[in-house]
Every structure is written in structure tokens, then in C-alpha cells.
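[Discussion] Sanity-checking designs against the backbone

I'm trying to build intuition for which residues belong where. Below is a C-alpha cell string of 429 positions. I'd appreciate it if someone posts a full sequence so I can compare it with mine line by line.
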């Protein structure tokens, strides 16, 4: 969410930013919120004036009574009553106008970084760098669920009967591989100096609106019926929510955290053939990284964070590339975002396995996460998040890139301690 003062003083910049995000229907909201803000400030000014007058008139009443001027005292009392009635009207109206301002401000997108490429949607995202040599083997690579079935590692039919489409049972060595990847990612981030956290898997509505846009909430979140609770779509939500309303001491920054959680997503809409299986599902697990830092440090942390994901995937023998998200593909709270994509030798192309985002002070403003500087000044923190690894989608890339012609799957050396020393998973069927 933008600072209303910034919007008030820079409406043309805000409108141009909306154009860059191809959300022209929101342009009129800028003028609308400016008028509402003007009304809110006028109400506040009048209310403050009435309160000030009340103190002055109260002293006058005392003076009139001391002089025996009952008529003057009664006139003053009448004025106090009129002011009180008007003040009551203003105090009733002010929160209504404030709420209108807040709702509009929640829908106006954050100012994107100057370096972000301009484009309408993800088809115009820009490749930054490739890491590792993408290889297409001389044997056919089956669909990922077929690989898992030959390893006796998945049962989607039973999951469909139990929970419906978008769910799965992972079994045996594949289930163990899933857990091994998460454990390796946890230790990988701890070795980078991050603090490991297991957060709540449900959050209240005021945290939801603090960390994401309304459109994202509707697309993603499952609500618990009858309660003010939502299942998290990513642990970023509850991790950032932890600092809601907090005053963070500047000396403690940056806060570098890595969290494990299950994630729950609606995943609305139709999906293509390659997004079946365990690619786009309602329930999965993820290792995330979160950074809360000073504003001047956020871009440095942004570059460190996505590079950690690249490093992890390369340690597992998976070629990856980074894509910069264009303006139209950025969620409204984001200043800048990179996707990390893994190579699929089956599809002969890359697909998304993680996303790194710098949200500037947008989440901090919504949640009032402030920093107290050494000089006593207070300011809003910057927040960033990034996927370390999110199996089972990541398992698709892992299985395809480590598959042998006989159907066995190699276990990279760094993962073997988490697999009981196993060097290879072999077909069971």
C-alpha cells in the first residue's frame, strides 16, 4: 500500500505507474482517493477546531459566572451544545470516509522499480541468466507421475477418492525424497545464516489483507467456515504477520528467516496437460525465506535471495534460469520480482519452481511494521520473500533431470545423507 502523502503529492507518478501495470481502470481511483482524503482532512481540521473552541468557551463560562453574567453564560453553554452536536456528526462521519480511503488505497498498486521491464503479462517476462547446461537424453522421459508410479511412489487415484482432484499420496522412496529435499533446503538456509521457523498454518483476515491484494486472496485462500481464519497459501503470510504492529530495533536488522509449512491454494481456472499430476495442486509443502531489512538494503537482499535458490537447485544437478517479471505480471504489492525456472528435459523448456519478491514497505505499511533507528527516528521496514524449494513441483524437475534409461533415479551427493546413504532409487514396478 502506498503512502497517502506520496499519492497526494505525486498523483501523476501514481497514474503513470498504474498505466505501466496495464490497470487503466484504476486511474480514476487516484483522483477519487485524493478528494476523499481532502474531505477526511477537512473533517479532522474542523473537529480539532471545535475541540479547541470548547476549551476556550468553557473558560468563558467560568468568567461569566464569576461576574454574575447569567445571560452570557447561557449563550456560551448554548454554543458548547451546538459545537458538541456538530462534533458528534463529524466523529461519526470521519471513520466512514477513512475506510473509503483505506479500501481504495489497498487496490492501488505499489510503485515498481525503475529496472522492471514493461509488459502486459508473463509472456513478456525477460530471461536474465541461465545456470547449468540443459540436457535432453537420448531416451524418452515419461510424464512425472508415470516416473513416480514405476518407483511405487504415488497414488493419485486414492487421493481423488479421499479428497478430490488436486491431492496425492506420496509413498516409499518418493515420499522420502520429498522429505529429504525439504530437510536439505532447511539446512542449506541455516548454513546461510537464516533462523529456522515453523509458523502457524492459519492466519486472521487482518493479516491476510496486510500481506496480499484482494485479487490474490480470492484466487488463493481457503477460509475456515465460521471463523476469522484462513489457511496459508505460503508461510510468508504468517511469517510477515508475526511482526504486525511491532517496533523493531534497527540494531536487530536484517531479520533473516527460513520457514517450513504446508501450503493450501484454490488454484482456480483450467490448466494445460503439463500442469496435471503434482504440478498444480491444492496442498503442498515448502521451504521459504523471509527478510525484513532497512530500505537501503532491500535490493541487495533481493539479489542474494534468488541466488540462494539457484545455488540450491544447481547442487541437485538441475539446470535453472532466472526470469524478471514484467510490470503486468507483478502482483500489486511487489516492487520487483524474479522467477526461478527449472529445466524440463521432457518438455524441452523451463518451468517455474520458485519466485523471489521485493515488496518495499507495502506490507510494512499495511501491518505497521516499524523500525526504531539508532537516532530515535522511526520508519517502515522493507520485506522480501523467496521460495527456497517447493516440492512436489520441484520433484518433477528433480526426477526428470536425474532419471536414467532403466527408470532409476540418481541421488546427488548432497542429498544422500538425508536418504540414508541411498545413491539411487530403482523401479519397483
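Best answer:
Here's mine. Compare freely.
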Amino acid at each position: 500500500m502506498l503512502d497517502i502523502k506520496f499519492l497526494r503529492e505525486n498523483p501523476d507518478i501514481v497514474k503513470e505507474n498504474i498505466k505501466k501495470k496495464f490497470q487503466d481502470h484504476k486511474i480514476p481511483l487516484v483522483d477519487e482517493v485524493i478528494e476523499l482524503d481532502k474531505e477526511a482532512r477537512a473533517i479532522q481540521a474542523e473537529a480539532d477546531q471545535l475541540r479547541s473552541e470548547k476549551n476556550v468557551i468553557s473558560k468563558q463560562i467560568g468568567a461569566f459566572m464569576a461576574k454574575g453574567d447569567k445571560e452570557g453564560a447561557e449563550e456560551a453553554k448554548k454554543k458548547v451544545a451546538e459545537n458538541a452536536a456538530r462534533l458528534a456528526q463529524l466523529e461519526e462521519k470521519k471513520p466512514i470516509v477513512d475506510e473509503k480511503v483505506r479500501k481504495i488505497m489497498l487496490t492501488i498498486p505499489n510503485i515498481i522499480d525503475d529496472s522492471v521491464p514493461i509488459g502486459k503479462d508473463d509472456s513478456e517476462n525477460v530471461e536474465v541468466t541461465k545456470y547449468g547446461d540443459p540436457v535432453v537424453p537420448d531416451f524418452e522421459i515419461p510424464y512425472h507421475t508415470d516416473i513416480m508410479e514405476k518407483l511405487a511412489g504415488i497414488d493419485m487415484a486414492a487421493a481423488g477418492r479421499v479428497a478430490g482432484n488436486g491431492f496425492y499420496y506420496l509413498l516409499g522412496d518418493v515420499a522420502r525424497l520429498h522429505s529429504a529435499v525439504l530437510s536439505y533446503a532447511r539446512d542449506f538456509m541455516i548454513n546461510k545464516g537464516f533462523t529456522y521457523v515453523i509458523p502457524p498454518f492459519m492466519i486472521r483476515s487482518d493479516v491476510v489483507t496486510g500481506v496480499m491484494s484482494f485479487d490474490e486472496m480470492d484466487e488463493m485462500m481457503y477460509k475456515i467456515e465460521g471463523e476469522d481464519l484462513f489457511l496459508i497459501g505460503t508461510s510468508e503470510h504468517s511469517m510477515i504477520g508475526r511482526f504486525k504492529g511491532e517496533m523493531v530495533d534497527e540494531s536487530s536488522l536484517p531479520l533473516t528467516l527460513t520457514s517450513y509449512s504446508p501450503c493450501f491454494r484454490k488454484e482456480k481456472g483450467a490448466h494445460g496437460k503439463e500442469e496435471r499430476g503434482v504440478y498444480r495442486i491444492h496442498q503442498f509443502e515448502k521451504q521459504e525465506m523471509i527478510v525484513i531489512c532497512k530500505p537501503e538494503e532491500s535490493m541487495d537482499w533481493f539479489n542474494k535471495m534468488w541466488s540462494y535458490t539457484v545455488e540450491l537447485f544447481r547442487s541437485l544437478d538441475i539446470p535453472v534460469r532466472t526470469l524478471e517479471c514484467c510490470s503486468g505480471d507483478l502482483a500489486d504489492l511487489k516492487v520487483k520480482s524474479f522467477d526461478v525456472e527449472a529445466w524440463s528435459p521432457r518438455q524441452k523448456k523451463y518451468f517455474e519452481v520458485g519466485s523471489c519478491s521485493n515488496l518495499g514497505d507495502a506490507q510494512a505499511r499495511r501491518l505497521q511494521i516499524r523500525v526504531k533507528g539508532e537516532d530515535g527516528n522511526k520508519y517502515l521496514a522493507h520485506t522480501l520473500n523467496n521460495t527456497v524449494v517447493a516440492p512436489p513441483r520441484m520433484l518433477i524437475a528433480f526426477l526428470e533431470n536425474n532419471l536414467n534409461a532403466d527408470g532409476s533415479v540418481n541421488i546427488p551427493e548432497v542429498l544422500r545423507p538425508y536418504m540414508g546413504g541411498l545413491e539411487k532409487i530403482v523401479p519397483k514396478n
